[in-house]
Fold Histone deacetylase domain-containing protein.
Amino acid sequence: MKVYYSDICLKHAPKHEILSGTLVDYVESPSRLTTIVNQLQTQSSSKHFEFLSPSDHGLDAILAIHDVDYIEYLKSAYKEWCEEGGNKNGVIPEAFPHSGFTSVSRGKIKNLKSSIAKAGLYCFDLSCCITEGRPPGHHANSKLSGGGCFLNNAAITAKLLINNPDSNGNARKVAILDIDYHHGNGTQDIFYSQSNPLYVSLHASNDFPWFTGEVTEIGEGEGEGYNVNIPLPEETSDEIYCELLEKVIKERIIPYGANYLLVSLGVDTYKDDPIGGFQMTTDVYKRIGRIIKSIELPTLFVMEGGYYLETLGINVTNVLLGFMDN
Ligand SMILES: [Zn+2]
């Protein structure tokens, strides 16, 4: 299996964030990546993983998903924030132009000069501390960061595949399977009115990002019927999760007839995860990999969440080993 990884991602290393009112160490830490990479490289199965550096596809692929003003903001945000006197730990918004904030003037928003003010314009929560590097993506939509995500990596890849027809000139169909503990509100939002890709998410029903992820969110217009949410209770076990995963694959993903599968892979479903966690154990992840293999499509796993460092590397590796039927 090919593993694409860059040390550039390690540059994203804010010191702390505010979680449920408490100042905590930043959960989206570089140690997550080093733990996963070390596990893939050192364990006996390392012969199965070929490490490669990602190639640069330029900004066009990103701009096919994200608004140009948002990307321009991200490019300069940290530098301007520091120049304006913001804390060097990273950009954290201090005011949001909430839709219920009736005095918000559209003209004023367009002409915002302050990078401190802009932070609230391009972010929906306090978790996106901008420094450098590139963290996960499924909470980011076309113009907003949030949930530790800035660029929606799965959405960018899906669009890149969809926009490049196969050798016979036929459009490629993509299915995105999101198995992170949290609902991928950004991916849902980006493709909500489109029938390609199909978006399927299994996630916690009563957790971040709180306002999305209901069964009734099925897509709209051309996209109606191509957005599938399966919200789950905290007590979800290995057995129940696997049953539901197999069911949605059989009933929704296989009939869709995709050419490619993208998996938004989060292992924050693990029972001891500090910001997530169903009742799932390390043993289940190989089984999940095998179930995904049963779809029999060319597959890309895109790393999303998973924050319990002691088992993070093993759980991720197990999904990939299961997929390879090892
Ligand atoms: Zn998550």
Q: What stands out?
A: The beta strands are 2-4, 16-19, 22-25, 50-52, 174-178, 198-204, 227-232, 260-265, 299-303. The chain has a mean pLDDT of 91.
